[in-house]
TrEMBL record:
Signal peptide: none annotated. It is a multi-pass membrane protein. Gene3D superfamilies: Sodium/glucose cotransporter. It comes from the Bacteria. Belongs to the sodium:solute symporter (SSF) (TC 2.A.21) family. The keyword Metal-binding does not apply. One of its GO terms (biological process) is proline transport. It comes from Shewanella livingstonensis. Keywords: Amino-acid transport, Cell inner membrane, Cell membrane, Ion transport, Membrane, Sodium, Sodium transport, Symport, Transmembrane, Transmembrane helix, Transport. InterPro entries: Na/Glc_symporter_sf, Na/Pro_symporter, Na/solute_symporter, Sodium:Solute_Symporter. Catalyzes the sodium-dependent uptake of extracellular L-proline. One of its GO terms (molecular function) is proline:sodium symporter activity. This is Sodium/proline symporter.
Amino acid sequence: MHYLTYVSLAIYFMVMLGIGLFAYKQSTSDVSGYILGGRKVSPQVTALSAGASDMSGWMLMGLPGAMFLVGFETIYIALGLLIGALVNYLVVAPKLRVYTEVADNSLTIPEFFAKRFHAPNSHVRIIAAVIIVIFFTLYTSAGLVAGGKLFVSAFDLSYELGLVVTLGVVVSYTLLGGFLAVSMTDFVQGCIMFVALVLVPVVAYQEFSSADKMMGFAYESIPHFSDAMQNVTMLGLISSLSWGLGYFGQPHIIVRFMAIRSVSDIKIARRIGMSWMTVTIIGALATGLVGIAYANKFDMKLVDPETIFIVFSELLFHPLISGFLLAAILAAIMSTISSQLLVSSSSLTEDIYRVLSKKESTDKEMVKMGRYGVAGVAVVASVLALDRSNSILSLVSNAWAGFGAAFGPLVLFSLYKKNLTHKAAVAGIVSGAVTVLFWIYAPVLADGKALTSLMYEMIPGFIVSSIVIWITSAFDADPCSKTVDTFHEANRVLIEQQ
């Protein structure tokens, strides 16, 4: 590896740590500042922060790898994500921004679920927090696996060293600066990812004299576009598109809507965020497609398809630019890990420690506990990530489905159903999470395989949770008048602010 590549990476690391120090001085004196940035985040930072924390290492490694292996069927996953993200901005973002503030300034998703029913220490808060910690630990391990693979493929260093370096930098600035540091670093990282996902496929395409030539080499390994579109099964199509359902229940994404400075800014954030997402997803798919053609043309053997972006970065660019492109992968990985660590830490401290300890703690003590939480989740996730055989896309898909099914229906019902009850909320979370876990791990099919081999677990989990919430609310006692009043108050404030 050329020394200029290491210079680029060193500059990137110093910028991230510098942002963490800046945020440390600006917004970590109280819990609201540490967890939500004081609800003063700009629409530009909100948009790119949501996008960068959403896409993570799977955008530059998992999605190109899926295109490399499967071909054009991967487009359906991308289409489902684009539709889901847009609906999330339109349906969830405005009401969640208002409702979480009206509901006694809720700082976390579990706290909002509880205060939605005027029961701040209720069961739904603890259960939701436990699910967040469990699934985010799994999700964080996916990011660390990506970091480890990067160091092996790009630097010929040990996988374990990659875990340590990735974890060390991201934990440092998350511990220091909290939500503001995470959001600001996400903004910078989102910009880096955008440039990289435009640059890499465009430069790689220059190796071919025409699009027809490139597609000719690609079709040596994957089905033609028309065949891929015709041969996809209905279950396969639904499973791929259903990735979009997950957006409604992803705490590390929807928490951005809670932190934006005003409802009117959401429209600006939506335009920026969707434009960014469209370009980067197309770039990721194009990287995988050009990678197939490149590998066939030059008879290149790729042991791990998820490293095609790394291979292009090393083969086609000047060492200084190569370092920038490798920093883009780290940016994607770290932006998601930092968001997940902060949300997990927030749930551990605000929704578990504060509730179970039953004592008044100062803001300084809670921020300190939050930092301990970040470190704790990071250590457990790093242990899980030691299994380098894990597929990044597989780990992400499991965690994505878990959150989408456990929280997605409840978020929608909480914002749009005034007679939702506490028992229905608890039943919805538990049934969604249990359904996903059963679908992934229970060997119920004749050949010992799990049901996930037939259909993506998001679909049954989301459906079961929605039905359980609806039926339980219908047969449960009516919610208290305060709950209904808060619902109407949130709608009134939303209309005024729009």
